[in-house]
């Protein structure tokens, strides 16, 4: 409801097998809605875990995590730069490779 998307995307089969469940990956809310805080996304990730042992023990624990920033979730779901800003990532990689190419060309010519 926070991002108007399904938590596992459209890849969730109607009657999933154990193997299909193992391949599912939670799509972080930050990917769709950057206004969702990381700690709230962490609470959702824990609540939607496919393993019952990794979920909240009861609804009160989940509601508490939704209302109060849990330090365990704050940096846990930090997105890599390639997902957060792909344009900046590829520009940075291109600049680094350009500098390396110039350095190698200079060394070959000298």
Structure characterization notes:
With 110 residues, the protein is an all-alpha fold. The chain has 2 domains: 1-79, no CATH class; 80-110. 55% of the residues lie in helices and 0% in strands. The protein is built from 7 helices and no strands. The longest helix is centred in the last third of the chain and has 24 residues, at 86-109.
Strand content: under 5%
Strand count: 0
Count of discrete alpha- or pi-helical segments spanning 4 or more residues? 7
- Tell me the count of domains: 2
Main β-sheet description: none
Helix % is: 55-70%
The helix-strand sequence is: HHHHHHH
Helix- and strand-based class? Answer: mainly alpha
Radius of gyration: 20 Å
Shape: elongated
Mean pLDDT: 81
Uncertain segments are none
**Measured distance between first and last alpha carbons:** 61 Å
Describe the secondary-structure layout:
Elements: H1 18-23, H2 29-32, H3 38-47, H4 59-67, H5 71-74, H6 81-84, H7 86-109
Helix pairs in contact: 3-4
Please describe the structure with a list of short key phrases separated by commas or semicolons.
110 residues, mainly alpha, 2 domains, 55% helix
């Amino acid at each position: 409801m926070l991002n108007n998307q399904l938590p596992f995307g459209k890849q969730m089969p109607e009657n999933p097998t154990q193997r299909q469940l193992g391949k599912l990956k939670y799509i972080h809310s930050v990917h769709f809605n950057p206004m969702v805080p990381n700690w709230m996304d962490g609470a959702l990730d824990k609540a939607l875990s496919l393993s019952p042992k990794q979920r909240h023990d009861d609804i009160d624990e989940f509601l508490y995590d939704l209302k109060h920033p849990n330090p365990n979730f704050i940096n846990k779901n930090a997105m890599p730069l390639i997902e957060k800003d792909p344009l900046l990532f590829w520009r940075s990689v291109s600049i680094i490779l350009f500098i390396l190419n110039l350095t190698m060309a200079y060394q070959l010519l000298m």
